[in-house]
Amino acid sequence: MPRMRLGCFSGVEGDYVTRTLGLAAALAAFWVLLSGYWLPLIIALGIASIALCVVIARRLDVCDREGYPIHLTVPGITYFPWLVKEIVVSNITVAKAILTGDVNPQVLQVRASQSDALGRTVYANSITLTPGTVSISVDEDVITVHALMDETADGLRSGEMNARVCNLMGDSVPTDTKHEVGAA
Known about the structure:
alpha+beta, 2 domains, four-stranded antiparallel sheet, 6 helices, 12% strand, elongated
């Protein structure tokens, strides 16, 4: 008899239990952060709200690897501060380039070495979050990018962000040095 899918418990049992409990804990922390009240009625309503949200999430089957990526928590401790630093540095670089007129718009294609769609999405979103670059399209293992200046394009050609996203996702880091597929 085929195994019936039960929302968050549809795959490896322990993984989905962990995701469900993690979702409940995250919702509880968020609720406490926003509420700040410790009256019995408010706490009871908060618990009921959290339970309802978890049940809805399970019924919608969104407690999967993509919907609730709890597996990115520990690797994210190093990746997300690095990404924030890159955003700040790129903001300053783009502001200087605009003020000095040192802008050379270009479209290039870079290789995405991530093994799944979630990894490629994180990579494309990281490119777009970094000022001076915008992901235009994602096709399998190639991301088409608009870069505002040579410096921002060279940053992508170096492959550092690709390697960091691979580390974040638990994929093997590419050893080849050619990250640009070509100019679009």
